[in-house]
């Protein structure tokens, strides 16, 4: 596998691209069309399978939510096309399937994300899989590609979106879903469609122009349009391939305009191609142990450690003090009003762990919000920033939880790095267990097991439809 | 259950209440008339754009993408889901840079309201008067949001704030209450694109998809609310006051609301190019009206105009879309081909050596004195220097087709319609469609209209 860097060789330079961003995109496109399954180190293929399984799991887990179901019924029909709306006996076009599946996959806030290695001055790239996987499956199914092709598409798509995300920084109030990972979805789809380098390059530019400018505020207020951002992004990625096929053209430096101006004030093109083909961002992903904002995880994990070790009757709890790093400390709403809002509330998640000994999908359903016992404890949780913890980021993202009882006993626990990330990875058994817990209730435990088996041997699969046909309820 | 918190009426309530209370009987007849004209002009440009190969390719893709193809991609043989129909139609409608706009708002609300509205109206089987009401309302809401918004430098309004107009029109046609409409507006704001205006200057055709995507997202937003999805309390404040722009000017957005109707301040184009170019073209034609100019006799042409227009100075545009943003090409095409409509910016005009040679002789400058007159005026001065030593000069203060500067007559609008609509429909059907549009309120079901707008393979 050749290395890619920004010392641009003449033959790598596309005819239409300009500037250093253009050169970076040219290299990225070249990488996306040339990578073969044999170029993927075993560790990378492993992570691709883990990301695929986990993402299918969270899509299944979100697919039966009321609004996601309504959307699915609107976008699909019994014989509505070549692509599956996961978790439903509905078929549709690839673009509609990506829209529905990306939306369902965001619902539980349980989908895996990306965090760059500690010690490197790189930014996190948010949530690549919930964009890239829906686009890959929807197009892969329509093209009846092999499991190996799906793995390659997933990896190159993950790289493309993540690297643009890491090379820029979307403005604070923009929710990163539906922004740079549209490019990742587009690259994966274009790869599966067998685009050549030139068309791949156009597709990247076109997808950049279809980036949303969505509000983060919807997450804080628990408003469900936020769950559609990734769905729209995945669909926009596929749309970009359709536009490229119809002859539409992007700006010569659309990537620079959009990600280095409009959505983000700057873009560092060198970061897009640094160690391309050698360093794989997909190995830097985290699997979420709890369906909440990632920043809440160390606090929830500390609370879990406490309830596993000590007997603390909820009615005995006087106060709970959570100390954590700056970004996490903003998740301090003690009285969330919606399920989505609860996922952005450390008091709620910690209280669920203390009272119900669990912080799984059930704890963030609208019905759970009425749990008066949890509400009472959540009201006693104080979240504070600890400047010492903040100074340890991004290498560590610590939190501590101290529970003081009415009898003045104090139980404390500290977590420096939450589980599931590259620095504290989850064993594959835990990933599979999480998958089965999400998939089982929707497609049944047997099919859930079968999916685990198929994904484990995905590179052997000659037709991806052998996987997708398992992702629907019923016999 | 969690109780809704009490709050005061705000801007979005005002928009929602205004939009849901609109009725043709109560609106001043001039407003209804301008709404109808916006509809006529927009349908014309959609039909005129559909013949373009890229648009046809997109239309086919959108038809394939659809599972409930209940709406007509105008001027094509394709039907598609309402959302994807809106995408194809709006992309076609902005193709020739010939669609109506609004200089006070600084954008093109009509294409969103019409593309989103027609696709949903056909799906729902609504009457012509409901469609017209919803279009006037969607136009108004988008324009009000546009008035308050100052986009980040480098952004193109297409695909941005006008999306809310498509959402409003679609929501009204689905019978939404003020509460649902408020939700629709707040859902739509986060489905806006972060666009770049350089695409237009370079002639990158993705720019036409900004409008298509925006119209589609408007329909999608309304449908999402039907599915039960929700949006934040103040999506306009968040997105246009802090993300796509840094300040939302509420005073400007609310000015004379309910009394002044933004659709009455819209313009209709006589030339198929960027609006900023029109004053220079009008200035030139004021000269050629007096006497013919032989292009071979032209030594050079100097154009002075306002700053925004002066950026459109490319003497050698690389493709038809870029040509629609080039004053040198527009003037050269006008003098050589005696044309300022769609053919003036086609590939053959672009390749014409006489046009290219003359465009190279055009110099465009911004003039601070002229710029100081904007936005009330959008002036241009054109000086044609001839080889025989004479200099001919023409000026324009505002482009023709503005409501306050020789508005386009109904006859001229009808003529424009027939020219463009005949491309896919042929002259007879084009005439029937035009007749129906002038009497849109009489139509019990808009499907009678859309059925006529189906294209055939031959055209």
How would you sum up this structure, described in words?
The complex is a heterodimer of chains A (475) and B (459). With 475 residues, chain A is an alpha+beta fold. Chain A has 2 domains: 10-289 and 433-468, 2-methylcitrate dehydratase PrpD (Orthogonal Bundle), CATH 1.10.4100.10; 294-415, 60s Ribosomal Protein L30, Chain: A, CATH 3.30.1330. Chain A is 49% helix and 8% strand. Chain A has a 4-stranded mixed sheet. In chain A, strand 1 and strand 2 (90-92) form a beta hairpin. In chain A, helix 2 runs antiparallel to helix 20 and helix 5 (129-143) runs parallel beside helix 7. The termini of chain A are far apart. Chain B contains 22 helices and 8 strands. In chain B, the strands form 3 sheets. In chain B, strands 6-5-7-8 form a 4-stranded mixed sheet. A two-stranded antiparallel sheet of chain B has the order 1-2. In chain B, strands 3-4 form a two-stranded antiparallel ribbon. In chain B, a hairpin with a 6-residue loop joins strand 1 and strand 2 (79-80). The termini of chain B are far apart. Chain B folds into 2 domains: 11-270 and 417-452, 2-methylcitrate dehydratase PrpD (Orthogonal Bundle); 275-396, 60s Ribosomal Protein L30, Chain: A (2-Layer Sandwich), CATH 3.30.1330. Chain B has 459 residues and is an alpha+beta fold. In chain B, helix 1 packs antiparallel against helix 6 (128-148) and helix 13 packs parallel to helix 16 (327-337).
Can you give keywords for this protein?
A: 2-methylcitrate dehydratase PrpD; 60s Ribosomal Protein L30, Chain: A; 2 domains; two-stranded antiparallel ribbon; 49% helix; 8% strand; B: 459 residues; alpha+beta; 2-methylcitrate dehydratase PrpD; four-stranded mixed beta sheet; two-stranded antiparallel sheet
Secondary-structure topology with pairs:
The complex is a heterodimer of chains A (475) and B (459).
Chain A: H1 19-34, H2 42-63, H3 66-75, E1 83-85, E2 90-92, H4 94-107, E3 113-114, H5 129-143, H6 147-166, H7 181-192, H8 197-208, H9 217-220, H10 228-246, H11 254-262, H12 269-273, E4 285-286, H13 297-309, E5 317-324, H14 326-329, H15 339-342, H16 346-356, H17 372-378, E6 381-385, H18 387-392, E7 399-405, E8 410-415, H19 428-443, H20 445-456, H21 465-468
Parallel strand pairs in A: 5-6
Antiparallel strand pairs in A: 1-2, 3-4, 5-7, 7-8
Helix pairs in contact in A: 1-8, 2-4, 2-6, 2-19, 2-20, 3-4, 4-5, 4-10, 5-6, 5-7, 5-10, 6-7, 7-8, 7-10, 8-10, 8-11, 13-16, 16-17, 19-20
Chain B: H1 11-21, H2 29-49, H3 53-64, E1 71-72, E2 79-80, H4 82-94, H5 109-124, H6 128-148, E3 149-151, H7 163-173, H8 178-188, H9 198-202, H10 206-227, H11 235-243, E4 245-248, H12 250-254, H13 278-290, E5 298-305, H14 307-310, H15 320-323, H16 327-337, H17 347-351, H18 353-359, E6 362-366, H19 368-371, E7 380-386, E8 391-396, H20 410-425, H21 427-438, H22 447-452
Parallel strand pairs in B: 5-6
Antiparallel strand pairs in B: 1-2, 3-4, 5-7, 7-8
